[in-house]
């Protein structure tokens, strides 16, 4: 499975592509950070991010996108920019029929470090180790994008099993309600 991990942001947007292999083996294919100047209008910054993401989607043809979910931040301006960047990226993937999954920072940290409260240095160290990289990915947005992709590779089988179980439960409920209605 080829996963594109995205750490959205207006100033720095981390992009990565990894390939999940047998078991928990993950191989990094590409990583970069798209930067936009803070003195540009938000629409122009979003356009630059959109253009870069479209290029990555066309070049790498991922099976799925893993985007960091905006969970909570105290700075409303930062939250808005992050959410807008994530939305632009999700739309680009949806246009191509690529599944998009959102993961919280805590889920990502727990997946790659075993600790949902890990700091950026711990995440970067584990990403470097998991992928067998010669050097730590920098800046932190690059490491975070790789961590998102790794997280999704490792969580995807569970996500698929849960979706199948939920679909089966919904079908059983429909069947049961149909029997109850027919018995009346």
From TrEMBL:
<comment type="similarity">
    <text>Belongs to the RuvC family.</text>
</comment>
<feature type="active site">
    <location>
        <position position="7"/>
    </location>
</feature>
<protein>
    <recommendedName>
        <fullName>Crossover junction endodeoxyribonuclease RuvC</fullName>
        <ecNumber>3.1.21.10</ecNumber>
    </recommendedName>
</protein>
<dbReference type="GO" id="GO:0048476">
    <property type="term" value="C:Holliday junction resolvase complex"/>
</dbReference>
<keyword id="KW-0460">Magnesium</keyword>
<feature type="binding site">
    <location>
        <position position="7"/>
    </location>
    <ligand>
        <name>Mg(2+) 1</name>
    </ligand>
</feature>
<dbReference type="GO" id="GO:0003677">
    <property type="term" value="F:DNA binding"/>
</dbReference>
<dbReference type="InterPro" id="IPR012337">
    <property type="entry name" value="RNaseH-like_sf"/>
</dbReference>
<keyword id="KW-0378">Hydrolase</keyword>
<dbReference type="GO" id="GO:0005737">
    <property type="term" value="C:cytoplasm"/>
</dbReference>
<keyword id="KW-0255">Endonuclease</keyword>
<dbReference type="InterPro" id="IPR036397">
    <property type="entry name" value="RNaseH_sf"/>
</dbReference>
<keyword id="KW-0234">DNA repair</keyword>
<comment type="function">
    <text>The RuvA-RuvB-RuvC complex processes Holliday junction (HJ) DNA during genetic recombination and DNA repair. Endonuclease that resolves HJ intermediates. Cleaves cruciform DNA by making single-stranded nicks across the HJ at symmetrical positions within the homologous arms, yielding a 5'-phosphate and a 3'-hydroxyl group; requires a central core of homology in the junction. The consensus cleavage sequence is 5'-(A/T)TT(C/G)-3'. Cleavage occurs on the 3'-side of the TT dinucleotide at the point of strand exchange.</text>
</comment>
<dbReference type="Pfam" id="PF02075">
    <property type="entry name" value="RuvC"/>
</dbReference>
<dbReference type="InterPro" id="IPR002176">
    <property type="entry name" value="X-over_junc_endoDNase_RuvC"/>
</dbReference>
<feature type="active site">
    <location>
        <position position="141"/>
    </location>
</feature>
<dbReference type="InterPro" id="IPR020563">
    <property type="entry name" value="X-over_junc_endoDNase_Mg_BS"/>
</dbReference>
<keyword id="KW-0479">Metal-binding</keyword>
<dbReference type="GO" id="GO:0006310">
    <property type="term" value="P:DNA recombination"/>
</dbReference>
<comment type="subunit">
    <text>Homodimer which binds Holliday junction (HJ) DNA. The HJ becomes 2-fold symmetrical on binding to RuvC with unstacked arms; it has a different conformation from HJ DNA in complex with RuvA. In the full resolvosome a probable DNA-RuvA(4)-RuvB(12)-RuvC(2) complex forms which resolves the HJ.</text>
</comment>
<feature type="active site">
    <location>
        <position position="68"/>
    </location>
</feature>
<keyword id="KW-0963">Cytoplasm</keyword>
<keyword id="KW-0233">DNA recombination</keyword>
<dbReference type="GO" id="GO:0008821">
    <property type="term" value="F:crossover junction DNA endonuclease activity"/>
</dbReference>
<feature type="binding site">
    <location>
        <position position="141"/>
    </location>
    <ligand>
        <name>Mg(2+) 1</name>
    </ligand>
</feature>
<keyword id="KW-0540">Nuclease</keyword>
<dbReference type="GO" id="GO:0006281">
    <property type="term" value="P:DNA repair"/>
</dbReference>
<feature type="binding site">
    <location>
        <position position="68"/>
    </location>
    <ligand>
        <name>Mg(2+) 2</name>
    </ligand>
</feature>
<dbReference type="GO" id="GO:0000287">
    <property type="term" value="F:magnesium ion binding"/>
</dbReference>
<keyword id="KW-0238">DNA-binding</keyword>
<keyword id="KW-0227">DNA damage</keyword>
């Amino acid at each position: 499975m080829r996963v594109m991990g995205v750490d959205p942001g207006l100033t720095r947007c981390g992009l990565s592509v990894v390939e999940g292999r047998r078991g928990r083996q993950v191989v990094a294919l590409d990583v970069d950070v798209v930067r936009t100047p803070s003195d540009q209008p938000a629409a122009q910054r979003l356009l630059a991010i959109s253009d870069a993401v479209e290029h990555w989607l066309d070049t790498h043809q991922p099976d799925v996108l893993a985007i960091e979910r905006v969970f909570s931040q105290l700075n409303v301006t930062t939250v808005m920019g992050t959410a807008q960047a994530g939305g632009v990226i999700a739309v680009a993937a949806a246009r191509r029929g690529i599944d998009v999954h959102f993961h919280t920072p805590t889920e990502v940290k727990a997946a790659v470090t075993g600790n949902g409260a890990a700091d950026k240095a711990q995440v970067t160290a584990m990403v470097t180790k998991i992928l067998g990289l010669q050097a730590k990915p920098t800046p932190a947005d690059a490491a975070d994008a790789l961590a998102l992709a790794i997280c999704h590779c490792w969580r995807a089988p569970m996500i698929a099993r849960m979706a199948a179980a939920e679909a089966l439960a919904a079908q059983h409920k429909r069947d049961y309600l149909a029997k109850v209605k027919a018995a009346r």
